[in-house]
Amino acid sequence: MSLTLPKWSTSIAFRQALIYGALVVLTMTVLLVLFYQETVGEWRRRIDRQIDTTTERLVGYFGQQGAAGLATHIAGLLGDGVDSDTEVYVLVDPARHEVIGNLALAPAIAAPTGGIVEQRVLRAGRPSQSRLRITRLADGSVLIVGRDMEDQRALERLIRRASLWGAGVTLLMAVGGALAFRRQLEHRIGAIRQTAARIERGDLAQRVPISAQQDEFARLSHDLNAMLDRMHALMEGVRHVSNTIAHNIRTPLSRILTRLHKAQSSRDPAADLPTAVGAAIAEIEDLNVVFDKLLQIAEVESGTRRQSFTPVSLNAIAVNVLELYDPVAEAKGLRLTHDLDREPMTSGDGDLLANAMANLLDNAVKYTAAGGAIHVDTRRGSAAVTITVRDTGRGIPPAERTRVGTRFHRLDRSVPGWGLGLASVTAIARLHGGSLELEDARPGLIARLVLPALDGA
Amino acid sequence: MRRCLIIEDDADNAAYVAEGLRELGWWVSVCGNGIEGIEQATRASWDVIVLDRMLPSEVDGLAILRTLRGIGRRTPVLILSALAATDERVRGLKAGCDDYLTKPFAFSELAARIEALMRRAQPGEEVREMRVADLRVDLITRSVERAGRTIPLQPREFRLLAYLLVNQGRAVTRTMLLEAVWDYRFDPQTNVIDVHISRLRNKIDRDSAQPLIHTVRGVGYMLAANGAAPRDPA
């Protein structure tokens, strides 16, 4: 049993959405704090300024008209009906007796303060949170100017509650959004995962459905499908190779078996068996050659022989292989000529390159009728060197040219062979980082082995 | 009597090779695993050892070969293995084998190669001239005469003749010729070797009543004074 993690921790979509939600909440909070500061805070500062100016004005009165004048003025202010539900004025004489004011109890705290304080007081008979400025006057009286903050506090509460609601809704929306986002992502990824699961179960034809939106997922799905197509094609190739190999090995095997069985059960085994055995040996020897060639192609394709690459002269190879085939061409009545460039060099395996060249010459000899001609040349270019074998034989139809490099593909089954020659040449060319090019020589075939030129040669 | 040790775990194959070699006049001993093989190979002296690479024990063919070479034994060793890739062949040669034949094989090929190894193992005195019947070949000046008449040969034809001559009286296979004379390890599809031999035969045997180059059916070719080819062992 594997440890089951809570689902959110294994869902990148959910984590991302959650982080996003947290960011939204944070932004919201900062926004609300700023809003609060700019409204409630500003309001409070304005009140404080008002308290300050009123205090200064009243202190001015006291300077001009003395304590009695100030008391009269305050009485006027209290009675004018302006701001009467919020204003606070108290004048206390030096003997700590209230001269005038609208606080039920002159605060015991009537000690003057430098700035404005906020206190719970009893104003006009009801408790009130007020901001107060307490000033000691020149004769020892104390003047208290203030403002009831109850309405202000109600506003603050309102804003706070609205903010909380807002924050709650934001949080809910963030979480809901995260869930929805995850669902959406999982839906898109789920489609890919389902396809992968079906392919894993063996249905290789499955492809990721591509949604109508041309978004990242559509592009990813498209890339995945392209990759799957390529893999499918490669696997088909492998299947084709193993099928053809099986076919080309089984066919002779069944021929051998049939022949031997027939000879064994014939009326005169003594007379029939030697022929059957001889034929079987010939078939098995052929099979052996096919096996060797297949293994050699596989070895070449595996690339291990690249380790033993040395500088090789194409001319040396051409001369040697030409010399090997010269008597064969002569015996068949073919004219074999050559034209060699100045030292075309490549890095490679001399034996394999000779093998490739021998295969090309072998084909040329095989498919060119008596009286024809074969011409071999080597060329040296800046990036590539070539060996070309040109014959006047029957050539290869354009449609067939791409297929002759596949194993066991044969143009003419009446000519002896296994259909492995050009497959081998193609593999050798690829091993060397080169290619085999086939062209029409009108009439005949041009087979050109193109190889990378040796650096610095 | 020439003595051959066969170290091979496939009993059928070992018996087949042993029987064939006995018919050719060899004294043959067979052992089927690596440890016994290494004992036998080092204890007695052999003219040739036929060695399989993959053996059922810790000791594989190459280990036996390295041990043998390590203690200074120059006994010719022919590896007989299903491992056919070039780098496997190179590993065998690096370990000190004298020839490498891959399975499946024809007994005639094996026999011809063992004979060639015997020739190579003989103390090599500097041979200047070789003769078969009225054919005289000077290996230094590379001149060839038949019945006193000089025969001009191409360099490759000369190498072909020289190889047949060195192995005179013994059959050599087409693959051996391709390896020894052309130094190629691949198998050309067409019978190129046959055509080269027939060209050489034309020059050597055409004007003579006594043919020297003989076709050995199922094996290859042989250069000999009398045409009585050895019994076809295949």
Outline of chain B, from the CA principal axes? Answer: elongated
Oligomerization: heterodimer
User: Sheet bearing the most strands of chain B, described?
Assistant: 5 strands, parallel
Structural class of chain B: alpha/beta
Order of helical and strand elements of chain B: EHEHEHEHEHEEEEHEHHEE
β-sheet strand percentage of chain A? 15-25%
Q: Which stretches of chain A of 5+ consecutive residues score pLDDT under 50?
A: none
End-to-end distance of chain B: 22 Å
* Percent strand of chain B: 15-25%
Radius of gyration of chain A: 52 Å
Chain pair sharing the greatest interface: A-B, 32 and 23 residues
Measured distance between first and last alpha carbons of chain A: 64 Å
Task: Output the keywords.
heterodimer, A: 457 residues, alpha+beta, five-stranded mixed sheet, 55% helix, rod-shaped, B: 234 residues, alpha/beta, disordered C terminus
Overview of this protein structure:
Chain A is of the alpha+beta class. Chain A has helices spanning 7-10, 12-79, 150-200, 216-264, 269-302, 314-331, 350-367, 421-431; strands at 87-92, 98-101, 116-123, 126-136, 142-148, 310-313, 335-339, 345-348, 373-380, 384-391, 435-440, 445-452. Chain A is 55% helix and 17% strand. In chain A, helix 5 (269-302) packs parallel to helix 8 (421-431). Chain A is rod-shaped, with a radius of gyration of 52 Å. Chain A starts with 6 loop residues before the first helix and ends in a 5-residue tail after the last strand. The relative contact order of chain A is 0.07. In chain B, a hairpin with a 3-residue loop joins strand 11 (213-216) and strand 12. Chain B contains eight helices and twelve strands. In chain B, 35% of the residues are buried. A five-stranded parallel β-sheet of chain B has the order 2-1-3-4-5, with helices on both faces. A four-stranded antiparallel β-sheet of chain B has the order 6-7-8-9, with helices on one face. Chain B has 234 residues and is of the alpha/beta class.
